[in-house]
Protein backbone atom coordinates (compact mmCIF):
# COMPACT_ATOMS: atom_id res chain seq x y z
CA UNK A 1 0.00 0.00 0.00
CA UNK A 2 1.22 3.49 -0.82
CA UNK A 3 2.40 5.49 2.16
CA UNK A 4 1.34 8.95 3.33
CA UNK A 5 3.29 11.46 5.42
CA UNK A 6 1.51 13.91 7.70
CA UNK A 7 2.72 16.27 10.43
CA UNK A 8 2.24 14.81 13.89
CA UNK A 9 0.36 17.83 15.18
CA UNK A 10 -0.98 21.24 14.19
CA UNK A 11 -2.61 24.12 16.02
CA UNK A 12 -5.30 26.47 14.83
CA UNK A 13 -7.36 29.33 16.21
CA UNK A 14 -11.11 29.06 16.31
CA UNK A 15 -12.92 30.55 13.30
CA UNK A 16 -9.75 30.60 11.19
CA UNK A 17 -9.07 28.36 8.17
CA UNK A 18 -6.92 25.26 8.64
CA UNK A 19 -4.79 23.61 5.97
CA UNK A 20 -3.78 20.04 6.79
CA UNK A 21 -1.06 18.73 4.43
CA UNK A 22 -0.45 15.17 3.26
CA UNK A 23 2.43 13.90 1.12
CA UNK A 24 1.98 10.74 -0.93
CA UNK A 25 4.79 10.65 -3.47
CA UNK A 26 4.29 6.92 -4.29
CA UNK A 27 0.58 7.21 -5.06
CA UNK A 28 -0.58 4.99 -7.92
CA UNK A 29 -2.92 6.05 -10.68
CA UNK A 30 -5.87 4.18 -9.19
CA UNK A 31 -5.44 5.35 -5.58
CA UNK A 32 -8.11 7.62 -4.22
CA UNK A 33 -7.16 10.06 -1.47
CA UNK A 34 -9.38 9.70 1.58
CA UNK A 35 -9.58 11.81 4.72
CA UNK A 36 -11.08 10.59 7.96
CA UNK A 37 -11.06 12.20 11.36
CA UNK A 38 -11.36 10.77 14.84
CA UNK A 39 -12.81 12.88 17.62
CA UNK A 40 -11.70 11.98 21.17
CA UNK A 41 -13.13 8.66 22.38
CA UNK A 42 -15.03 8.06 19.14
CA UNK A 43 -14.65 5.95 16.02
CA UNK A 44 -13.28 7.57 12.87
CA UNK A 45 -15.68 9.44 10.62
CA UNK A 46 -15.47 10.09 6.90
CA UNK A 47 -14.54 13.62 5.86
CA UNK A 48 -13.92 13.67 2.11
CA UNK A 49 -12.25 11.81 -0.75
CA UNK A 50 -10.98 12.60 -4.24
CA UNK A 51 -9.03 11.24 -7.18
CA UNK A 52 -7.66 14.08 -9.31
CA UNK A 53 -9.88 17.14 -9.06
CA UNK A 54 -10.42 19.34 -6.05
CA UNK A 55 -13.51 18.38 -4.05
CA UNK A 56 -15.84 20.28 -1.75
CA UNK A 57 -18.48 19.06 0.65
CA UNK A 58 -20.26 20.45 3.68
CA UNK A 59 -17.42 19.49 6.01
CA UNK A 60 -14.28 20.46 4.11
CA UNK A 61 -12.45 20.94 0.82
CA UNK A 62 -9.76 18.72 -0.63
CA UNK A 63 -7.09 20.29 -2.80
CA UNK A 64 -5.06 17.78 -4.83
CA UNK A 65 -1.76 18.72 -6.45
CA UNK A 66 -1.59 18.41 -10.21
CA UNK A 67 1.00 15.59 -9.96
CA UNK A 68 -1.10 13.97 -7.17
CA UNK A 69 1.96 13.61 -4.94
CA UNK A 70 0.40 15.75 -2.25
CA UNK A 71 -2.95 16.99 -1.07
CA UNK A 72 -4.37 19.42 1.47
CA UNK A 73 -7.50 19.14 3.56
CA UNK A 74 -9.00 22.57 4.15
CA UNK A 75 -11.34 23.34 7.01
CA UNK A 76 -12.71 26.75 6.11
CA UNK A 77 -13.56 27.92 9.59
CA UNK A 78 -12.27 25.80 12.47
CA UNK A 79 -14.50 25.23 15.46
CA UNK A 80 -13.65 23.64 18.79
CA UNK A 81 -15.49 20.54 17.61
CA UNK A 82 -12.96 20.13 14.80
CA UNK A 83 -10.24 19.21 17.31
CA UNK A 84 -9.43 15.64 16.28
CA UNK A 85 -6.86 13.36 14.68
CA UNK A 86 -7.05 13.67 10.89
CA UNK A 87 -5.98 10.70 8.76
CA UNK A 88 -4.95 10.90 5.11
CA UNK A 89 -5.30 7.46 3.49
CA UNK A 90 -4.72 6.12 -0.02
CA UNK A 91 -6.65 3.33 -1.66
CA UNK A 92 -10.05 2.47 -3.01
CA UNK A 93 -11.86 2.56 0.32
CA UNK A 94 -15.51 2.03 1.11
CA UNK A 95 -16.75 -1.25 -0.22
CA UNK A 96 -13.97 -1.59 -2.73
CA UNK A 97 -10.88 -1.92 -0.60
CA UNK A 98 -9.33 -1.68 2.81
CA UNK A 99 -8.28 1.55 4.48
CA UNK A 100 -4.82 1.40 6.05
CA UNK A 101 -4.51 4.09 8.74
CA UNK A 102 -1.28 5.83 9.69
CA UNK A 103 -0.82 7.96 12.82
CA UNK A 104 -2.50 11.06 11.37
CA UNK A 105 -2.26 14.71 12.40
CA UNK A 106 -3.59 15.79 15.77
CA UNK A 107 -5.33 19.14 15.30
CA UNK A 108 -5.79 21.38 18.32
CA UNK A 109 -8.16 24.35 18.09
CA UNK A 110 -7.69 27.29 20.45
CA UNK A 111 -10.62 29.51 21.41
CA UNK B 1 -30.90 3.88 10.78
CA UNK B 2 -28.87 2.85 13.80
CA UNK B 3 -25.75 2.65 11.62
CA UNK B 4 -22.99 0.43 13.03
CA UNK B 5 -23.57 -0.89 16.55
CA UNK B 6 -21.06 -2.67 18.75
CA UNK B 7 -21.51 -4.59 21.98
CA UNK B 8 -20.28 -4.59 24.66
CA UNK B 9 -18.91 -1.06 25.18
CA UNK B 10 -16.44 -2.25 27.82
CA UNK B 11 -15.09 -5.68 28.73
CA UNK B 12 -12.47 -7.03 31.13
CA UNK B 13 -11.13 -10.53 30.52
CA UNK B 14 -8.61 -12.73 32.26
CA UNK B 15 -5.75 -14.20 30.26
CA UNK B 16 -6.90 -17.34 28.46
CA UNK B 17 -10.60 -16.51 28.43
CA UNK B 18 -12.50 -16.34 25.16
CA UNK B 19 -15.19 -13.93 24.07
CA UNK B 20 -17.02 -12.55 21.07
CA UNK B 21 -17.29 -8.87 20.18
CA UNK B 22 -20.52 -8.19 18.37
CA UNK B 23 -20.95 -5.87 15.39
CA UNK B 24 -24.11 -5.19 13.41
CA UNK B 25 -25.06 -2.74 10.67
CA UNK B 26 -28.45 -1.91 9.20
CA UNK B 27 -27.29 -0.19 6.01
CA UNK B 28 -27.14 -3.35 3.86
CA UNK B 29 -23.41 -2.90 3.27
CA UNK B 30 -21.54 -5.84 1.79
CA UNK B 31 -18.16 -4.71 3.16
CA UNK B 32 -17.39 -4.93 6.88
CA UNK B 33 -14.15 -4.84 8.82
CA UNK B 34 -12.58 -4.94 12.28
CA UNK B 35 -9.79 -2.66 13.50
CA UNK B 36 -7.91 -2.36 16.75
CA UNK B 37 -6.44 0.85 18.12
CA UNK B 38 -3.74 0.82 20.77
CA UNK B 39 -3.07 3.96 22.85
CA UNK B 40 -1.60 6.81 20.79
CA UNK B 41 -1.65 4.75 17.61
CA UNK B 42 -3.63 4.66 14.42
CA UNK B 43 -6.05 1.88 13.59
CA UNK B 44 -4.81 -1.50 12.40
CA UNK B 45 -6.96 -3.80 10.28
CA UNK B 46 -7.65 -7.24 11.81
CA UNK B 47 -10.09 -8.96 9.45
CA UNK B 48 -12.52 -7.90 6.78
CA UNK B 49 -15.39 -9.29 4.74
CA UNK B 50 -16.69 -8.38 1.30
CA UNK B 51 -19.96 -10.24 1.72
CA UNK B 52 -21.76 -13.02 3.56
CA UNK B 53 -19.63 -16.16 3.63
CA UNK B 54 -16.43 -14.33 2.58
CA UNK B 55 -13.76 -13.22 5.05
CA UNK B 56 -10.07 -12.42 4.79
CA UNK B 57 -7.15 -11.39 6.97
CA UNK B 58 -5.93 -7.86 7.50
CA UNK B 59 -2.66 -6.60 8.97
CA UNK B 60 -2.91 -8.18 12.44
CA UNK B 61 -5.16 -11.28 12.31
CA UNK B 62 -3.37 -13.56 14.78
CA UNK B 63 -5.46 -14.49 17.83
CA UNK B 64 -8.76 -13.49 16.22
CA UNK B 65 -11.42 -15.33 14.23
CA UNK B 66 -14.33 -13.97 12.24
CA UNK B 67 -17.31 -15.32 10.35
CA UNK B 68 -19.99 -13.67 8.25
CA UNK B 69 -23.19 -15.67 8.05
CA UNK B 70 -25.44 -12.66 7.31
CA UNK B 71 -24.97 -9.28 5.67
CA UNK B 72 -25.84 -7.52 8.92
CA UNK B 73 -23.53 -9.20 11.45
CA UNK B 74 -19.76 -9.58 11.66
CA UNK B 75 -18.65 -10.93 15.06
CA UNK B 76 -15.00 -10.98 16.16
CA UNK B 77 -13.88 -13.87 18.37
CA UNK B 78 -10.91 -13.85 20.69
CA UNK B 79 -9.97 -17.49 21.15
CA UNK B 80 -7.63 -17.22 24.15
CA UNK B 81 -7.23 -13.64 25.34
CA UNK B 82 -3.74 -12.26 25.99
CA UNK B 83 -2.68 -8.95 27.60
CA UNK B 84 -1.35 -7.87 24.18
CA UNK B 85 -4.96 -7.80 22.97
CA UNK B 86 -5.83 -4.99 25.36
CA UNK B 87 -7.08 -2.34 22.96
CA UNK B 88 -10.08 -0.48 21.60
CA UNK B 89 -11.82 -2.40 18.84
CA UNK B 90 -13.75 -0.69 16.06
CA UNK B 91 -16.07 -2.30 13.56
CA UNK B 92 -16.83 -0.60 10.26
CA UNK B 93 -19.04 -1.13 7.25
CA UNK B 94 -18.55 0.40 3.83
CA UNK B 95 -20.64 1.68 0.98
CA UNK B 96 -19.08 2.98 -2.21
CA UNK B 97 -16.16 5.14 -1.01
CA UNK B 98 -17.28 5.83 2.55
CA UNK B 99 -16.78 3.70 5.64
CA UNK B 100 -18.91 4.03 8.74
CA UNK B 101 -17.41 3.16 12.10
CA UNK B 102 -19.04 1.94 15.27
CA UNK B 103 -18.44 3.54 18.70
CA UNK B 104 -15.88 0.91 19.72
CA UNK B 105 -15.40 -1.73 22.40
CA UNK B 106 -12.75 -1.07 25.05
CA UNK B 107 -11.18 -4.41 26.01
CA UNK B 108 -8.79 -4.99 28.89
CA UNK B 109 -7.07 -8.33 29.35
CA UNK B 110 -5.47 -8.89 32.76
Describe this structure in words.
- The complex is a heterodimer of chains A (111) and B (110).
- Chain A contains no helices and 9 strands.
- Chain A has 111 residues and is mostly beta strands.
- In chain A, a hairpin with a 5-residue loop joins strand 6 (61-64) and strand 7 (70-75).
- Chain A starts with 8 loop residues before the first strand and ends with a strand.
- Chain B is mainly β and 110 residues long.
- In chain B, strands 2, 4, 5, 6, 9, 10 and 11 form a 7-stranded mixed β-sheet that branches.
- In chain B, strand 5 (43-51) and strand 6 form a beta hairpin.
- The mean pLDDT of chain B is 94.
- Classes of the chains: A mainly beta (111), B mainly beta (110).
Question: Keywords for this structure?
Answer:
heterodimer, A: 111 residues, mainly beta, 4-stranded antiparallel sheet, 45% strand, globular, B: 110 residues, 11 strands
Number of alpha- plus pi-helical segments of chain A: 0
Rg of chain B over CA atoms, rounded to whole Å, is 13 Å
Main sheet summary of chain B: 7 strands, mixed
Largest beta-sheet characterization of chain A: 5 strands, mixed
Shape of chain A: globular
Low-pLDDT runs of chain B: none
| Total beta strand runs of chain A | 9
Share of β-strand residues of chain A: over 45%
Per the principal axes of the C-alpha atoms, what is the gross shape of chain B? globular
Tell me the distance between the termini of chain A. Answer: 38 Å
The secondary-structure class of chain B comes to: mainly beta
Could you tell me the radius of gyration of chain A in angstroms?
13 Å
Order of strands, main sheet of chain A, comes to 1-9-8-3-4
Tally of helical runs of chain B: 0
Largest inter-chain contact set: A-B, 22 and 28 residues
Order of helices and strands of chain A: EEEEEEEEE
First-to-last CA distance of chain B: 36 Å
What kind of assembly state do the chains in view correspond to?
heterodimer
Instruction: Classify the beta-strand content of chain B into a percent band.
Output: over 45%
Amino acid sequence: DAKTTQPNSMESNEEEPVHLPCNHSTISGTDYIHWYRQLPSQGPEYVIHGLTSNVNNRMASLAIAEDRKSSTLILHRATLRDAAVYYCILGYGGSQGNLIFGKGTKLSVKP
Amino acid sequence: NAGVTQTPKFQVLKTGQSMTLQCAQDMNHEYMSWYRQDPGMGLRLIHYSVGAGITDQGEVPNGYNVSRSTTEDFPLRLLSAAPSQTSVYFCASGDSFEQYFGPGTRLTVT
